[in-house]
Design brief:
The chain is α/β, with parallel strands linked by helices. It has a single domain, classed as Rossmann fold, CATH 3.40.50. It has 3 helices and 4 strands, in the order βαβαβαβ. The mean pLDDT is about 90.
Amino acid sequence: MKPRPSAVIAMNDLTAVGVIKALHQEGLRVPQDVSVVGFDRTQLAQCLIPSLTTVDMHAELLGQTAADALHELCTSTKGEGKEYCMPLELVIGESTGPVPKTSEL
């Protein structure tokens, strides 16, 4: 891709692994040439070299909140939904770094 992106944010950690593999096959280094971020903080994120920067969506809390919301919908006479704001946490790994200089892109 011209110009090459300085970073890729993948929809999940497994996809981020595929991105890192594809970048390596193209002769690009992570994070020196392209930073990579995953999403869902799997154990895989810590096993990679370089370790993956990822977003922890606190899956257990998300599941509990979804179950509570479903229960409330089933037992409520109002039948109205609610909006929920769930906490996210950026877990910095070794797969991200400074943006390369324009001449390097």
